[in-house]
Amino acid sequence: MNELVTMAIQGGRYLEAERKLGQIIETNPNDEAFFCLAGVKANLLLDKGRSFNEVTYCFNRYLELSDNKNVAEKNIMVFSIGLYTQLQQIIENLKKQRKTQVLNTAVGVLVTFASSKIIDNSKSSFGIISGFVGASMGIGLSMESISNIGDIGQIIKYCS
Question: For the structural domain made of 3-67, what CATH number should be given?
Answer without folding.
Answer: 1.25.40
